[in-house]
Amino acid sequence: MERGSDAAARRGLVRWPMVCWLVILVLIGVAQLVRGEWFDAAVFLVAIALVCCSVLLPAQGADRPRPDLVVFAATALAAAVTLLPRHSTGMIVAVLITGVAALVASWPGASSARRAWTPGLRRLAVAWAVIMVAGCLWELAQFIVGRIAPTQPSFALSDLVDPLLDTELGKAVFAGAWLSCGAFLVLRERRGG
């Protein structure tokens, strides 16, 4: 009897936002394949698998890391990313460790209990969605320009921030902001946010 209710609950968890994320991840993965970026395509394939696992695997219990551990780990990882040379194997490993740590710290307990969004959270979600969609459309447009007119300049977002990230201060500010936002999201999820 419990198995049937478990399956029904899981079916109820596959809502349109999750389908939208899966479609977005598949489209980005296909774009990476077209570009010949096999590593990036593999990253998006793993992301697709994790989104699917968030529905199929049981939700994590209440054993979440303490806030002081999250802040310490984020600070240590920000320092590592700042000190390592850009695009080096060490930096790739540090970024992968960051992703795995964030995944472990925030594995979906959220998918087990549906919560109503507050108006402020809805506005925040819409704002982030607009920013993300605008960034994705910019990247897609630059990719298309690069394919159609290879002699014309096209600037991916990473090309635009490269001058900032080529300095130690710029790397430190970016890593600090990136990991502060990540720690905020992990800690917010712990509060049931």
Order of helix and strand elements from N to C terminus = HHHHHHHH
Unreliable segments of 5+ consecutive residues? 1-10
Structural class: mainly alpha
CA-based gyration radius: 19 Å
How would you sum up the global shape? globular
Question: Largest sheet, described in full?
Answer: none
The end-to-end span amounts to 31 Å
Q: How many E strands?
A: 0
Question: Helix content range of the residues, please?
Answer: over 70%
Topology of this protein?
Elements: H1 2-13, H2 16-35, H3 38-56, H4 67-83, H5 89-105, H6 119-148, H7 157-165, H8 168-190
Tell me what the structure shows:
The chain has 193 residues and is an all-alpha fold. The chain has eight helices and no strands. It has helices at 2-13, 16-35, 38-56, 67-83, 89-105, 119-148, 157-165, 168-190. The longest helix is centred in the last third of the chain and has 30 residues, at 119-148. It is globular. The protein starts with a helix and ends with a helix. The relative contact order is 0.10.
Short structural description:
By secondary structure, the protein is mainly alpha-helical. Helix content is 76%, strand content 0%.
Which tags fit this structure?
76% helix, 0% strand, mainly alpha, 8 helices, 193 residues, single chain, disordered N terminus
